[in-house]
Design goal:
The protein has twelve helices and six strands. By secondary structure, it is an alpha/beta fold. The chain has a single domain (3-274), classed as Glucose-regulated metallo-peptidase M90, N-terminal domain (Cyclin A, domain 1, Orthogonal Bundle), CATH 1.10.472.150. The longest helix has 29 residues, at 198-226.
């Protein structure tokens, strides 16, 4: 644990819990999509980020020291998807104090200086095992920590035009995995978009997302194989439905106007989930 993180913890030993104003204003100044929030939203995000920081532990890898500004920047972006959520993933009563239960399956956040090469294995339809390397800017592990590349995190402001945000991407995976399955569908409450039950809500959600995913994959294939126009959304989303969900979420939060133009069919579904009521 870095010395900067220990200093941050000492602030939280005093009441009320808060993020010092100079550090918070610096985070807002560095991230245009956070500056665009209303004053009330910024205040709510600041309080939620402080709660998040009090619950999580940051670890710098490969000699990286996680400073106070780094931790606060990550916390603010991680909490942005929770800003208007009220329901708990376990179906319990709503309330701000409970909204962080969406991230209750982990404590640690590992921050790498740059991208990480992970060794992977896959099995093809004939049963042959193929080993390969995958370059990662982040990774969210089910019931485990979140890994982030600081190089990718610090580029969040510049990459917002492209709809890219590694923090929101990985924490969208955590939302997706809140029901135990990374399948592109987070837990949905009964009544979601008029559904009579959680099961019906899930079916309606998946119908919309699977159709959008199929169209997106077709566009990526045409672009890669036949020289067509590459979609604006990160083509990594064509890997699987859960990756498509995470890629869509990051774009939705950091560049809503462009996302609205390119994925008008997904906008009301994401609004219903992230902005209930």
């Amino acid at each position: 644990m870095s010395g900067g993180w220990r200093r941050l913890l000492r602030w939280w030993q005093r009441a009320p819990l808060t993020i010092p104003d100079p550090l918070w204003q610096a985070v807002l100044a560095d991230h245009g999509f956070l500056q665009a929030l209303s004053l009330n939203e910024q205040q709510s995000l600041r309080a939620l980020s402080a709660e998040f920081l009090a619950q999580k532990e940051f670890h710098g890898a490969s000699g990286l020291q996680v400073t106070d500004p780094m931790a606060i920047a990550i916390a603010a972006q991680a909490c942005l998807p929770l800003l208007h959520l009220t329901a708990r993933p376990d179906g319990g009563a709503p309330g701000r104090g409970s909204v962080l239960r969406w991230y209750a399956d982990f404590v640690g956040i590992v921050v790498q200086p740059g991208e990480v090469v992970a060794r992977r294995e896959s099995v093809d339809e004939t049963g042959v095992v193929h080993a390969y390397d995958e370059v990662l800017a982040g990774e969210a592990m089910d019931q485990g920590p979140v890994m982030l590349s600081w190089q990718a995190v610090r580029e969040a402001s510049d990459s917002a035009d492209a709809g890219y945000n590694v923090v929101i991407h990985e924490f969208a995976h955590k939302l997706d995995m809140a029901d135990g399955a990374p399948d592109g569908c987070p837990p949905l409450p009964p009544g979601f978009m008029g559904a009579h039950s959680a099961a019906q809500a899930r079916r309606q959600w998946l119908k919309v997302w699977e159709e959008a995913y199929a169209q997106f994959c077709d566009q990526v294939v045409v672009a890669e194989r036949f020289g067509g126009e590459m979609p604006w959304l990160d083509s990594y989303g064509s890997q699987s439905l859960d990756e498509f969900f995470a890629v869509a979420c990051e774009a939705y939060f950091v560049n809503r106007p462009r996302f609205s133009a390119d994925f008008a069919n997904l906008l009301p579904v994401l609004d219903a989930f992230f902005r209930p009521g």
